[in-house]
Amino acid sequence: MTEGNFTDYVKVFVASGNGGKGSMHLHREKFVAKGGPDGGDGGRGGHIIIRGNKNLWTLIHFKFQKHFRAGHGEGGGANRSTGADGKDVYLEVPLGTIVKNALTDEVLFEITEDKQEIIALHGGKGGLGNWHFRSATNQTPRYAQPGIPGEEMELLLELKVLADVGFVGFPNAGKSTLLSVITSAKPKIGDYPFTTLKPNLGIVEHRDFQSFVVADIPGIIEGAAEGKGLGHYFLRHIERNSTLLFLIPADSKDIVEEYHILLNELKEYNPELLDKDRLIAISKSDMLDEELTVEIEKEIKPALKGIPFLFISSVSGKGIQQLKDTLWKMINK
Q: Which residues bind Mg(2+) (predicted)?
């Protein structure tokens, strides 16, 4: 999936169907002069149904079609026959999609399971036929109920990617390079900030045919929680990850300070993110010799207060297998 095809935020207009009107039919048959009322009920209008699909990773299929209308119910008929229900409309979305009322921003529900179906808008109820209104004093009612109109709404579909591990780091920290090394994903890579403009997902193949999903989130900058840079728009994707991998390059001026800046941005956005498991990967460590590595380790270990860290290099492969093993243990502890 290319970066340009990743869509995680879209507005759609939906309308459920009107209910069919009830019938005012009076039974007429040979040798039955006054058969009485036998008008059937109208069919219900079609629903708008949101359905989860595990094979979808993006909302790109809503890019060119944003209006959906369900079918109307048909009117009732003679012999108490009920009209046909309107055709339901199914909107298939990837797992992790939150459905909101676009007008009020109220969260209506979220889809987290494959084939999970939730009715977003109910179709209008069909009207009752005149058969229901017969009585001892009114044996031939010549009226029936009209169908109830359907509903209209603008929905906001917002995808929070479902991944086991989320990469957190400043632009140009080596997140995309690491993703390309440990998965078969082909993210855009360049030696300049904000190479990644959309989240990238990849599947890491581990030992014994085991695997887990990682997400490369666009780089966070200081002030991202207030809307600076690209971070604010994509920080929501980190909410679904069980483990956060902080990538900090070995040539950083202050590794511990950079970690605390990233941590603070997550806290400002959503304090609950601090409850997730954390691992720090010091990337680009092929630039370090053994002596310098030991020196950095001694310097940062007390300041990180028990947060695990390791040195990796996507170029040389240093620490990559150890990183996979550590992440696997954290996910499955």
A: 176, 196
Burial of 307 (0-12, 13-18, 19+ CB in 10 A): middle
Annotated ligand binding at 329? The verdict is no
Residue 176 annotated as binding site? yes
Q: How far apart are CA 224 and CA 160, in angstroms?
A: 17
- 137 annotated as a binding-site residue: no
Same domain, 121 and 264: no
Q: Is 161 annotated as a binding residue?
A: no
* CA distances from residue 54 to 68, 94, 119, 146, 329 in whole angstroms, order as listed: 22, 6, 18, 40, 25
Q: Can you read off the two tokens belonging to residue 68?
A: 């959906």
- The answer, as to whether pTM is greater than 0.70, is no
198 annotated binding-site participant = yes
Is residue 23 part of an annotated ligand binding site?
no
- CATH number of the structural domain spanning residue 48: 2.70.210.12
16 is in an annotated binding site: no
The parent domain of residue 268 ranges over 165-332
Pairing of strands 243-249, 165-168: parallel
**Do 126 and 253 belong together in one domain?**
no
CA dist list (Å): 137 to 133, 134, 141, 191: 11, 8, 10, 87
